[in-house]
């Protein structure tokens, strides 16, 4: 259904989910605003989160390596065939046009920017502040070789100083191959906008990144929808699925998955390992800051889902032994299923 109807989203249009799902109204959002402003207990960590400072190593040994580095929230760095791929980079301290409104849980970015000589491919899933960060783009713009973005987002990057010829826009199911790496833009069920009057004037998406050795899925933001089954049937067998697991609420379940939905989407996608994202960075919902990962952790144990829980800034290397740890709690424990084997 989705591949046949994705051309409903045409340039210059107000974009839509094929299912008809939409975000809550402006009026409902304003009613909930006081709950966002006055944070309840445990919505933010009561301690500084441990960070591993990530450096990018530029040498010949990286040519055959495939690694993922979670940099907090939904920022992921992929090093693949000697290429550096950065997804939804967020290196600043806020995720809101009002600086004090949504502040990051940790003060310094997990990426050592001095080690970034160039970004071979920048991927953006949508234009919300916690995924498309102005300060990050400004700091990285001269290092970006090419940026792949959903329709309508190009103009934002150009206005922030990224050269026009370095930005390519994609519709759902568009794809491109760069240096023997395929990048496929696939549907998500979400919405877009950065202000009061631009809702859904840009597209939102998930991304597939694959080569002859490995295949990765990055969900961006999405509610659960039948499109995951189509993506799994068409492109499935992903080595690692990076799926959003936080900032949910029953009120907006159609555009942000609950933990139970995450497991369903992972099974639909045909993934080998689940790596939760969209948590550990900001308080954008009313749940406790670590509730998403705790619920996912328990559900994965119950359903025998291989789980990857890298610390912020920690790299997961395919072909190497990896042991998931419950590092965010008061006591570090090991995940007790087969996710502690070679990836």
Automatic annotation (TrEMBL):
<protein>
    <recommendedName>
        <fullName>Metallo-beta-lactamase domain-containing protein</fullName>
    </recommendedName>
</protein>
<dbReference type="GO" id="GO:0005737">
    <property type="term" value="C:cytoplasm"/>
</dbReference>
<feature type="domain" description="Metallo-beta-lactamase">
    <location>
        <begin position="84"/>
        <end position="279"/>
    </location>
</feature>
<dbReference type="InterPro" id="IPR036866">
    <property type="entry name" value="RibonucZ/Hydroxyglut_hydro"/>
</dbReference>
<dbReference type="InterPro" id="IPR001279">
    <property type="entry name" value="Metallo-B-lactamas"/>
</dbReference>
<dbReference type="Pfam" id="PF12706">
    <property type="entry name" value="Lactamase_B_2"/>
</dbReference>
């Amino acid at each position: 259904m989705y591949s046949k109807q994705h051309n409903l989203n045409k340039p210059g249009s107000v974009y839509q989910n094929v299912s008809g799902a939409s975000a809550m109204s402006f009026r409902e959002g304003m009613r909930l605003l006081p709950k966002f402003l006055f944070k309840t207990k445990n919505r933010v960590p009561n301690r500084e989160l441990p960070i591993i400072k990530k450096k990018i190593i530029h040498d010949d040994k990286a040519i055959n390596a495939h690694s993922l580095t979670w940099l907090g929230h939904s920022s992921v760095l992929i090093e693949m065939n000697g290429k550096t791929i950065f997804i939804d980079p967020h290196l600043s301290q806020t995720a809101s046009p009002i600086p004090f409104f949504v502040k990051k849980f940790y003060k310094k970015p997990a990426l050592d920017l001095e080690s970034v000589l160039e970004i071979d491919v920048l991927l953006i899933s949508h234009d919300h502040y916690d995924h498309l960060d102005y300060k990050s783009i400004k700091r990285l713009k001269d290092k970006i070789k090419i940026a792949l973005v959903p329709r309508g987002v190009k103009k934002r990057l150009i206005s922030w100083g990224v050269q026009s010829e370095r930005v390519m826009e994609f519709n759902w199911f568009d794809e491109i191959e760069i240096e023997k790496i395929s990048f496929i833009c696939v549907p998500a069920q979400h919405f877009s906008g950065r202000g009061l009057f631009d809702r859904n004037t840009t597209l939102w998406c998930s991304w597939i990144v694959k080569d002859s050795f490995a295949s990765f899925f990055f969900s961006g933001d999405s509610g659960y929808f039948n499109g995951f089954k189509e993506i799994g049937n068409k492109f499935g067998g992903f080595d690692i699925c990076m799926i959003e697991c936080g900032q949910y609420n029953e009120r907006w379940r159609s555009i942000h998955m609950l933990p139970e939905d995450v497991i369903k989407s992972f099974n639909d996608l045909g993934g080998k390992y689940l790596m939760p994202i969209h948590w550990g960075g900001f308080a954008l919902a009313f749940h406790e800051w670590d509730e998403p990962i705790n619920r996912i952790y328990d559900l994965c144990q119950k359903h025998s889902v291989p789980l990857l829980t890298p610390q912020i800034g920690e790299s997961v290397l395919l072909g190497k032994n990896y042991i998931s740890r419950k590092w965010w709690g008061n006591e570090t424990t090991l995940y007790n299923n087969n996710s502690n084997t070679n990836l």
